[in-house]
Amino acid sequence: MSTYKNKEQKRLGQKGLVALIAFLSAFTPLSTDLYLPSLPGMTNYFHAPVNIVNLTLILFFIFYSAGILFWGPLSDKYGRRPVLLAGMIIYASASLMCACAGNIYQLIIFRVFQAAGGSSASAVATAIVKDVYDGRKRESFLALVNSMVVVAPAVAPVLGAAMLTFTTWRGVFWILTGAGLLALAGGAALEETIGVRYTGTIFQTMGRLGTVLKNPGFASLLLVFSLCSIPMLSFVASSSYIYIKWFGLSEQVYSYFFALNALCLLLGPLLYINLSRRFYRSSIIIACFAAMTLGGLLVRGLGNFSPWLFAVSLIPCTIAGSCLRPPGTNLMLEQQREDTGSASSLMGCCALLMGSLGMFLISLDWANTIFALGIMNFLTGLTGGAFWLLFSKKPFIKQVPDAFAAAPARQAR
């Protein structure tokens, strides 16, 4: 049965809670996509090679992943609100230091601290959803939040490119400093959502990560759905070089193509909401992995000819990957009755680690980056689909009622 469990948000209200969760969930794309148009220019500004400048992205994701593993279990012990407040203080301070960095190595170090603080947002956001919502309501809410979240990657590159017309890359980090302060204010207004806190020691609290990973239902689904981050973040890392250096577009025009891809991300969760009323969840998941496989072939075959063909051929991969997020997240949360913060941490960490792997792979010295991106999407769709077919019928997977399957029963009553 779907219920809203913790209704008391006297300062934020339910709409304010939705907005805060969406904002916190968008911290990863906000912290990366806003300065993507600046990356090619930063190589000239710092007189640094591409692989060194890309460390500001790659190390951000690695330490963001590690930070999630730290904050999530702590939120099970101390609560979501104090963890969020501590993380946002670190994030805002590090963003300010990034804006003042004197060389590329200082920027890399400050980005590490920015990642460590910002990861509290992702660790807390998903845990709050589990605290507050149950069942199919949670799945619908996750789809809504995911749809709202893609506003950040859609708007961020356009805003970042526009900022370059009157400021430098430093202005980007001033904006991120403001975002951290805004999230800090939201955290101050948040009423605690956790019901029962873990009472063990700090070491026992961190050990709950291992307990959650021993759950075969959670671990197998974690593998399946984390794979989707490989091609998604490899595109994030390579997009500016593909559009600006390979196709010769300006930073402003690149931002429009990137926004097009981000808007396609918006369609995925909305598409899932509609499809789930007509088809079984498992069928939708299989279709999404198949679409990703086909899209990878399209990118490989057509992507080199023009920026428009590249963008269009990538659309099936983008929509399919974002369509998988609501059912995947909900299924993983359903496997774990307790230790929600730890489960949320592992979900965020594994997704970002897989994404970091994709960013590392796409940063290698490929003769044709578009070809490599197409192969990544193809292999991810093929592997993810095979793993889903292998694991989904196993008895250790806790099944979640389908909205489509429940509709005839409601009509009969």
Automatic annotation (TrEMBL):
Top-level taxon in the UniProt lineage: Bacteria
Subcellular location: Cell membrane
A Pfam family this chain is assigned to: MFS_1
A Gene Ontology molecular function term of the record: xenobiotic transmembrane transporter activity
GO CC, one annotated term: plasma membrane
GO BP term, pick one: xenobiotic detoxification by transmembrane export across the plasma membrane
Domain Major facilitator superfamily (MFS) profile: 17-413
Family annotation (InterPro entries): Efflux_drug-R_Bcr/CmlA, MFS, MFS_dom, MFS_trans_sf
Assigned keywords, A-Z: Cell membrane, Membrane, Transmembrane, Transmembrane helix, Transport
Entries under Gene3D superfamilies matching the protein: Multidrug resistance protein D
TM stretches of this protein: 12-32, 52-71, 83-105, 111-129, 141-166, 172-190, 218-244, 256-275, 282-299, 305-324, 345-364, 370-391
Membrane topology summary: Multi-pass membrane protein
Record-linked PANTHER family: MAJOR FACILITATOR SUPERFAMILY, POLYAMINE TRANSPORTER 2-RELATED
Family, as annotated: Belongs to the major facilitator superfamily. Bcr/CmlA family.
UniProt name for this protein: Bcr/CflA family efflux transporter
Organism annotation: Pelotomaculum propionicicum
The encoding gene: bcr
